[in-house]
Predict the structure.
Amino acid sequence: MKIRTKLLITFLTITVVPIFLIYISILGLSSYQNRVFRETYDVGQVDLSAGASIRVFSHLTESIQKEIEEKIAKDPEIFTDQSYLGDLNARMTEKHSFLMVTKDGKLIYIGNDETASSLEREISDYAEINDSDSWGNYLDKNTEHLIKQREFELADGSRIAVYLVTNVVDVIPEVKSMITEMFFSSVLILFITGGMLTAWVYRSILWPIGKLQEATKQIRDGNLDFTLDVEDDDEIGQLCQNFEEMRIRLKESTEEKIQYDKESKELISNISHDLKTPITAIKGYAEGLMEGVASSPEKRDKYIRTIYNKANDMDRLINELTFYSKIDTNKIPYTFSKINVANYFRDCVEEVGLELEARGIELGYFNFVDEDVMVIADAEQMKRVINNIIGNSLKYMDKKHGIINIRILDVGDFVQIEIEDNGKGIGQKELPYIFDRFYRTDSSRNSSKGGSGIGLSIVKKIIEDHGGKIWATSKEGIGTEIHFVLRKTTAD
């Protein structure tokens, strides 16, 4: 849910919902109070929500009023009967009212002696105002009584005036109580609505912001090992998700940097070791020449050749390191062109064959592709691939009679090159990692021929940049095969 939608819901909750609930509560309380009022005072339908009006107080004596009308029609003489008047007054007492009766202006009955003197003048004044045969209502502000009058004539010509007097002060507290209950129920609704809204806003907005703030502190303190879990799909939820993705990437980048630093240190250590070995040899043979240890021409020639070979080893290591830096920044200079597979690998075999022959290594070359098969490749970099693979084979050759075979196969849309040796082989656990940067097998870690560990990673990078694939198979004690494929192209 979007924050804009949440704000709209908040506005409606603050305004519409409380109004609606207050309205419902008022209706409910009014209905309840009206029912109680009717049951208590035996009145008909009355609306207390209108407040303490004459209409409300008038309802209290409504049933008595109807009874009086019936008696006037049937037996008016009964209003001179003190017993009947006393019974009628007793029923009115329950309704905070009492009865007064006059005959020809003289008081013949009063149901409340305490208020007789104060009401006597008011009644006489009211009789002058309302001289009719219908009921009249009068609210006396001085004594706070509602007076209802009915006059009629007896058979002997005398006039009877019946007064129903209601004490307003006694009834008003009950009406006020109902209004007070409505007020407090409205306040309670506002508090409940506000509390629920506050909890909702806190859960949907403030809580995620708090978690996001805590996450920023964790990152500030260098801790990336935490998870920011926010399930909401609003703007803040999306912000938290983006933050979590940033944290994951930052953690991965940090771990990669740590690993890279570790590998770089290992590389420097390996390069230093591999450079130190030929340098030591060069210094030793150079000192032998200077001190005349190599007394014969044959011995001097051997020393010089050794120095030359060791210098070549150093040059190879330096070139390998330089090229690796280009790989690491994706700045390998490629010059792609169409290459005839048969001709190109024939030339490569002739070139490396001389070196292998000098080392006593048997080289086998088997071409199973047609003479017109072409691939798009960088000739120089492909030569680096061949040299690195063969160099790696020579480095770990442990047989007196070393053999390296090169096979060129036609596999549909691809040309597959296989370079096989009969060296010490690679363990199955180590085989998946031999193309990783800086990786050296356990068997080579303590070897003086351990190398830098980047030769095969360079090979993999070059092959993949050519759109090919490389893999290895090996058996310990038997040898290793390196396989890679290049896509064919047409001769045109």
About this structure: Residues 323 and 329 are 10 Å apart (CA to CA). The domain at 50-170 is CATH 3.30.450.20 (Beta-Lactamase). Confidence is low (pLDDT under 50) at residues 43-52, 443-448. The longest strand covers residues 479-489.
